[in-house]
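Here comes my example:
=====
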Amino acid sequence: MAYEPSDEVIANPQRGFYHHTETHYRDDGSGYVPLDGTALAGFRSEGITQILRVFYLEKFAANPILDDEFLSLVQADFDTARAAGVSVITRFAYLQGGAWPYEPPYGDAPVDVVLAHVKQLGPVLRENADVIPVVQNGLIGLWGEGYYTDHFVTDPANPGVVTPQDWAKRSAVTQALLEELPADRGVQVRTMASKQQMLGVPAAASSAVTGAEAFTDTALARVGHHNDCLLAAPDDWGTFLSDPITLDQEYLEADSLYVPIGGETCNVNPPRSEWDSASAELARYHYSYLNSDYNRDVLNSWGEAGLAETAKRLGYRFVMESSSVAPADESVTVSVDVRNDGWAAPYVPREAMLKLTGSDGATLSVPFTSNADVRRWLPGTTTTLSTTLNLSDPALASLTEGSYELSVALPSSDAGTASDTRFSVRTANAGTWNESEGTNSLEQTVMIGARDVSPGEVEPVPSVSPTPSAAPTPRDPEPSVSPTPSAAPTTVPTEPSASPTHTGALAATGGDLTPATAIGLGSVALLSVLLGSAILMYRRRLMQHN
């Protein structure tokens, strides 16, 4: 079965354009503007499924204790986002910049205060990880971007010089965030040097995380990147710090294949900020998300076609190419080929499931046993998913016999959003999406036959001889006797048993099975047993007559 691709912009979770939001908590407790559910619903109607939320902690820059009111407000924001079906890229910072030029003191917090705040934020971050795809490092300097800082450089008047001691303090903040987050969530840093210094590795592609190291509970696997001056200058205004900058660029190209990267544009810089160059860099560095609000001059220069292409290809874009359903004696193997036309793979855990749906509404979801982790579906590649449905599986045997539609389900792996189809992934195919179920139809069915055979019930079997036989008599237990070839009766009684046994069938078909024919593919071994019993009984009667 082949599938038709769709050219539609698809509002899938944890990818695409985002809207910027921010709020403040000033010395007098003023400035906090909660998220608005109606506004978030409007974002979703635009096809936007995530926001950046910057929480400014002005009141706490010199106070290590976050008050309960502030923490309650943060929790309420995450609740609002969850109810709206929106994810929250999260950043904490202490203050914004004022008018240029920026001069010290800037007003951010010292490292001990920062670490105390991270510890207090941990429970909120863990509680809401289902709507937090990634946390930006933040907390250091103006806007939380790590440059204009009073406490994480030796000389605030010369913030471009960062000593080993300064890097150690910065790394301590990143490590603290990693420790407070669930192991499957990451932290994004503002420059490649931040991760390299934390890990003690050089600026080189060989220092990047590999496929074998990816998705483990290590800083190497969990620290990603955000570039908030994408395309602004040759070095993106201090983003690429290596000499030559190509070392950082090659490092980011390799690292971003397995860790998240996103950001925003900030300066018109033709021709580099124009569409041809921009699209090449978004693809090279595997961007998952981008600010739709800033810089509009840069974004508008891409034209409607460029913006539409960006909306389609930021992050992942899965296209089902084909599927096959192969029945065997006691099983059916289902395979699906899925291509990733996006610029990145997903960076949040998600398991691909095969879902069976019966005409009576009964459902069963089973994981694909090969390539189920969508984070491994790399951009520009086709992945084959497969799983085998076995009659011996109790869950399968318990299904009512009949036809079951097959679909691919890509639900959220987080308990808080697993049943919310707004957090399920839709493939870029025409006519396959079931919005109410959050599934992608394979447009194929399997027939599942299963019924109980109670003790003493007669099971119909095909006749092997046209010759009629006498009605069967109750069968007494007796020693096994090697049977000789003989005509078999058309029906035989079953051996009494303590509990019902099951017969069943799995088949890929577009028709229906009646109860009389429900034995199907799974009955070969059963027929052999029944025929053997019939022959044995017939021989017993012959011996009695003699």
The longest strand covers residues 439-453. The chain is about 25% helix and 20% strand. The CA atoms of residues 17 and 292 lie 5 Å apart.
